[in-house]
Amino acid sequence: MAEISDKILIALVIVAIGVSIFGTVSTVSRLSGLGSITGQPFTSTPTGTANVTVPERTYITLTVSNIDFGDLDPTANNDTTDDLPPPFALRNDGTVNVNVTIKATDIFTAAGAGNPSSYYQFASRVDESGSVVNITTDLTTSLTNMAATSNTTAKVVSRFKFPAANDQVFIDIGLTVPADESAGVKSSTVTLTATKA
Amino acid sequence: MEERGKKTLTILLALLVLVSLVGTITIISEFSGLGDNFIQEVGGKVNLHVNPLPYDQNGKVGLTVVRVETN
Hints:
The structure holds two protein chains of two kinds. By secondary structure, chain A is of the alpha+beta class.
């Protein structure tokens, strides 16, 4: 093996030191943005200052996550607007107001009954009053055709508030069974996506 | 410095550089999401049972046979 010169060793030491400094500076700068807790632990004065930053968190919960419509005949319809069966209940457990979109897998297999269609619809209304900034514009008050799973922009609630006293809305579902739908159990997965408002 | 010692030192330094790089990249990637605008998804289920046809007026499965007799 060829001899290793002192220059190579010096270069490696410099690189190692450089990487260490870069890593330290990067880590410290990242951690300092999390909301530091500062104080004066070595002073004899029994006072100090504590600062904390509450991070922005987008967190929603379906407190009612299953809707069972029971038995329905072909051409029959039912929805949750009368709470029979109960609608989805969505709560904002985060620290920011959020916008929520909705999409779902097809529930019917009959021709022309895939999403979006009038056979499968959604709407929204407040459970706890004042849960949205503007009750007129931030809700989908009339039943609207359900978005397909490829759709990521179908709004169901916007500016959905997070304070605990006013942070829950209902997501209504309406179904009409197509005339030529096959008999049997039908199921659909509904996905609600929240982003910071 | 003896050649054998230099080689050992070189290997150790190379390892140090590698470990430092991996550590730095790992820490940065771990914290890179903090403070970002998180997107969160929740899922629900909608279920129903579609009754089979034909059915009679009482909701029972099967045809209702009506017998008509004429004299």
